[in-house]
């Protein structure tokens, strides 16, 4: 069964959603039969692609109109949700950076079978280490941690094919009505939106997998194919 996850590195609820999804996945008997694909989504593509201009606090207050009180309330909520999910959102003040380069590296990591590991490193770098994920040196270091060489990183950042793949993910999200992330699509049929509790993911995945199993069982009955009938 395939699970596609649209997210953005700059989204704290995407990080929480990832942790809750993985908590659910760890307890599923069929976990080894689930293929995970991370899909690109940009919350704000207008941010600088070369350097961080704002901290997240400055960004939300200056660009999104948050008051100090609203920001503090949101941060308190995030800290509580993060703690429950195993994330410490209080250790760094993240940099609000353009995530296009990060998404390019995620697509590169997929080629190496390291996409999930890279997604985790990017979230941790942004939210727990306060690093600028638009910075090439940061991405080179993260690539090194999952054994992706520097030359491949540099090439990916300038690869038009990978840039196209990122944009296709974003267009696909729009076409299926995704307006916010995280957004999970199970077996191209079921959708789970937001940083849901692990139990919600468990119920949805069990239902989707059960339908696949029932379909496979049905397919074992008398049927015809291009090779004949049996």
Q: What is the molecular shape?
A: globular
Largest sheet: 4 strands, mixed
- Radius of gyration (CA) equals 19 Å
Portion of residues in beta strands equals 5-15%
Structural class: alpha+beta
CATH class: Alpha Beta
How far apart are the first and last residues' alpha carbons, in Å? Answer: 27 Å
- Summarize the helix and strand pattern as letters: EHEEHHEHHHHHEEHEE
Mean pLDDT: 91
Helix fraction, binned, reads: 40-55%
What's the total number of strands? 8
The H-level CATH homologous superfamily, spelled out, is Glutaredoxin
Number of helices: 9
CATH topology: Glutaredoxin
Q: Spatial order of the strands in the main sheet?
A: 2-1-5-6
CATH architecture: 3-Layer(aba) Sandwich
Low-pLDDT windows of residues: 217-229
């Amino acid at each position: 069964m395939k699970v596609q996850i649209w997210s953005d590195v700059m989204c704290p609820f995407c990080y929480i959603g990832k942790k809750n999804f993985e908590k659910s996945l760890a307890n599923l008997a069929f976990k080894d039969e689930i293929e995970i694909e991370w899909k690109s989504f940009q919350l704000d593509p207008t941010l600088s692609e070369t350097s961080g201009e704002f901290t997240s606090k400055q960004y939300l207050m200056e660009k999104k109109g948050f008051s100090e009180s609203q920001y503090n309330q949101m941060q308190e909520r995030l800290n509580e949700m993060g703690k429950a999910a195993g994330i410490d959102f209080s250790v760094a003040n993240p940099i609000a950076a353009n995530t296009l380069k990060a998404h390019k590296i995620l697509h590169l990591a997929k080629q190496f079978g390291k996409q999930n590991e890279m997604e985790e490193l990017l979230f941790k770098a942004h939210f727990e280490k306060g690093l600028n994920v638009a910075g090439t040196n940061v991405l080179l270091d993260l690539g090194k941690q999952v054994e992706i060489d520097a030359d491949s990183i540099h090439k990916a950042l300038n690869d038009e094919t990978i840039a196209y793949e990122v944009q296709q993910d974003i267009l696909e999200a729009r076409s299926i009505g995704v307006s916010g992330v995280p957004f999970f699509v199970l077996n191209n049929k079921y959708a789970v939106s937001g940083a849901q509790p692990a139990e919600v993911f468990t119920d949805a995945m069990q239902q989707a997998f059960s339908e696949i199993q029932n379909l496979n069982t049905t397919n074992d009955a008398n049927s015809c194919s291009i090779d004949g009938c049996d």
